[in-house]
Amino acid sequence: MGSPELANLYQQVILDHSKRKKGFGLAEGGVAESHQLNPTCGDEITLRLHLADDDTIERISWEGAGCSISMASASLLSELVPGLTRDEARERIALFREMMRSKGAGVEDDEPLGDAAALEGVSRYVARVKCAMLGWVAFEDTLSLSS
Amino acid sequence: MTIHDLSETPTTGAPRTDTLGDEEALRLRGDFPALHQSVNGHPLVYLDSGATSQKPFVVLDAERRYLETTNAAVHRGAHALAAAATELFEEARARVAAFVGVREDEIVWTSNATEGINLVAYAFSNASAGRGGSAAERFRLGEGDEIVVTEAEHHSNLVPWQELAFRTGATLRFVPVDDEGVITAEAASEVIGERTRVLAFTHVSNVTGAVSPVDEIVRMAHAVGALVVLDACQSAPHLPLDLAALDVDFAVFSGHKMLAPTGIGVLYGRSGLLNAMPPFLTGGSMITTVTMERSEYLPAPQRFEAGTQRVSQAIALADAVRYLQAVGMDRIAAHERALGERLLAGLADIPGVRVLGPLDAARRTGLAAIDVDGVHAHDVGQYLDDRGVAARVGHHCAQPLHRRLGVTASTRASTYLYNTTADVDAFLEGVAGVRSFFGEA
After folding, report:
1. CATH 3.90.1150.10 domain locations along chain B
2. Cβ of B433 and A67 within 8 Å?
3. How many domains does chain A have?
4. What is the CATH number of the domain that holds A95?
5. Which end of chain B has less neighbouring CB within 10 Å, N or C?
6. B117 to each of B81, B201, B391, how far by Cα in Å?
7. Which one of the listed residues B359, B397, B407, B432 is annotated catalytic?
8. DSSP reduced 3-state for B439
9. What ipTM does the predicted assembly reach?
10. pLDDT by residue (tens digit) across A89-110?
């Protein structure tokens, strides 16, 4: 049993994604790859960016090991990004980062984040924000590397 | 140098027994203001003293009193405050020296154990670069020489030796741990040899709590003429420690893990060795004569204490030591051993939990790091924190040992004199609930 705060942090959608990870397994090809490490706990993620012919995002593929927050966050990101343009992707990253830095206050409109909005509870726990950001930082890095 | 009478130290008036027991531990807890608070709606259960300990009023008061009444630069100035500050600073050194069974001129103040290890490593490095004259001969390293560490080391007792090897051309070798993650004399004997010049290892592992066979390893190292550096960070706060009896050449520990403030640590070195070593940090207060071209250096310990020192912290460390002595290190060790036994026995009953290190409580101190099947240490720590239980999660600055034990991170509970069986039980109850919360059981 945990407190309501803990239940809010570990929502069912997060626990589900941490166990059944979307986009998991590095796919062949891709235009850029990024490896990100959280040195305090050893969490790591390697992420590849796959683009469609029109330069929109086809998908991301990734692998890694870490806590449920880092794994779920990368999984939720994988669901969110297919079909986005680069600019839309950067906007989503900026919005997610704003939410993570909100110390529990959230953002005005989390709609563009889809199910990843469920990670809002992480922002109350400063020590866990890095975990949630890991996959998104890797994704951001691949966007820079490939532009 | 006067050492204050131990009876001055405020502590429990109960008759002394061989161990503290819960009742006395709870009374001692009254001396630690940080332990009287709620976290996430629960009374704080602090089980992270292996990382840093909480501080009793006598230590907090000592630092404040010094700053309010005596604050001045030490070893310089002729005014009354400077003289009083210097006396307190050197009294503190004498008390800490006596605490670990060595002479006061063999105690060098550092910021922490990490700085102490770097000081020794840089003395080797500077000697290898030609500094220190003929006296520093035994600190010169080059190709063919070997620096030996173990696979169980904290990064602070590994990385400085890696860097020293890179700078000097010496080879860094390591003593592998056994399948339980323990340093054995047998494994050490296979690595220590004629080429070994320096051997650095931990007295007590910060991950497994296993106590190293110091006597045997020191004998082997000395038989081949190697110098021994002991990491006493997890022993000095928790066990009676006699560095002279252990016959090590150098030892380090940190004040903040033994009830003192941050920013103060201790390097012990044999007097003959310290005085033969070229300095590490150089500047004011460590010299005799300075010209525009060159300088002569003071004997140890001042030769290693350049710049304005951490005076209030050193004085507070002496008060921490006085507090520990009044309680009795043997009794603290016995209390933590009992807590460690309960911890191990309780963890053995929880399905899906693996304790890192030997499962025999007699071979370890009062801490335990665990791997919970299917749940990452960060999540375990979060779940425990939700219940007010403060444990350490991560690799505890010992990545190679975690890798050897087949995990990337673990969750560690570490006890101290202010912990009780109820604290251990709170940890065990938390751990017992983790896997079902995360859908693993």
Report:
1. 14-55+328-437
2. no
3. 1
4. 3.90.1010.10
5. N
6. 32, 11, 27
7. B397
8. coil
9. 0.93
10. 999 999 999 999 999 999 999 9
